[in-house]
């Protein structure tokens, strides 16, 4: 009797330990799967949030953090409420590239959440232009990635997410058509800019900036050099540029003075923001800005 008890007890313990190990393994593998509840999705920037909402549909609650054109995303300081949103998120979308370091930091801290970093998605290299939503390929890359990541969270909704992604990209056709037309109109056209906000779009369409040093200084929070300012004035005086791109969210005094100089000399100034204007969607926002540029070069 005692012998049989000695045999049965260790076996029972072993089976129990195996059950615990298996349970932990299953829990770890399914910890990122959302079943009955809505996916909690946090996006650092509102236009990425728009894309996320379009793909996720009714399967997620999407929280966009920076969504006001009066706010410079570089200087944004998250609140404790924002930190809570990140800590409870299932999926986080950050721009990356040093643009929204607060978002990428929160994403790393929430080890249970899935994370999309647009910089990684678009093969961003350190020192390149971090305004990645102005790269022509970003919407398609991000929307397709969102579909894949959301599917991992809710596998049963794979076709739903895929269809939503396709529908959103189809809705952008007027924008992509305009961009294709602009490749002819903007080829070899010269411009000045207060910051490199719109450079990813303009340079992909064939235009050339004559103010890279000026832009970089302002983007990094520094003052342009005396040479930068002199070059800006000379390019306007001798008619080298067709238009000026201004980021109205920047408060640099020298940038404002440079824009004023352009206006005084009848050079078209197009305002290009880092955040989506209230009441506009991504497509209309991009079309509106590009139309203004095309009008300036006609």
TrEMBL record:
GO terms for cellular component: cell envelope. Its main location: other. Keywords: ATP-binding, Membrane, Metal-binding, Nucleotide-binding, Signal, Transmembrane, Transmembrane helix, Transport. GO terms for molecular function: ATP binding; metal ion binding. It comes from the Bacteria. The chain crosses the membrane at residues 7-26. One of its GO terms (biological process) is metal ion transport. SUPFAM superfamilies: Helical backbone' metal receptor (SSF53807). It is found in: Cell envelope. This is ABC transporter ATP-binding protein.
């Amino acid at each position: 009797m005692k012998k049989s008890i000695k045999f049965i007890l260790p076996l029972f313990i072993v089976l129990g330990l195996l059950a615990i190990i298996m349970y932990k393994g299953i829990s770890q593998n399914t910890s990122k799967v959302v079943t009955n509840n809505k996916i909690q999705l946090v996006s650092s920037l509102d236009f990425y949030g728009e894309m996320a909402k379009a793909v996720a549909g009714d399967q997620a609650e999407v929280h966009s953090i920076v969504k006001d054109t009066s706010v410079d995303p570089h200087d944004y300081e998250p609140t404790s409420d924002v930190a809570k949103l990140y800590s409870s998120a299932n999926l986080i979308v950050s721009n990356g590239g040093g643009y929204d370091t607060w978002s990428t930091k929160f994403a790393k801290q929430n080890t249970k959440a899935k994370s999309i970093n647009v910089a990684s998605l678009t093969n961003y290299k350190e020192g390149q232009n971090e305004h990645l939503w102005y790269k022509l390929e970003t919407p398609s890359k991000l929307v397709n990635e969102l579909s894949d990541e959301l599917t991992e969270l809710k596998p049963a909704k794979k076709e739903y997410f895929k269809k939503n992604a396709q529908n959103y990209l189809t809705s952008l056709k007027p924008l992509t058509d305009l961009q294709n037309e602009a490749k002819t109109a903007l080829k070899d056209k010269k411009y000045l800019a207060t910051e490199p906000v719109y450079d990813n779009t303009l340079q992909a369409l064939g235009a050339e900036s004559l103010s890279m040093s000026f832009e970089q200084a302002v983007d990094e929070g520094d003052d342009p050099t005396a040479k930068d300012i002199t070059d800006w004035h000379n390019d306007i005086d001798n008619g080298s540029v067709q238009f000026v791109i201004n980021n109205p969210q920047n408060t640099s005094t020298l940038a404002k003075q440079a824009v004023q100089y352009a206006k005084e000399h009848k050079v078209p100034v197009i305002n290009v923001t880092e955040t989506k204007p209230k009441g506009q969607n991504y497509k209309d926002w991009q079309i509106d800005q590009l139309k203004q540029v095309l009008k300036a070069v006609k």
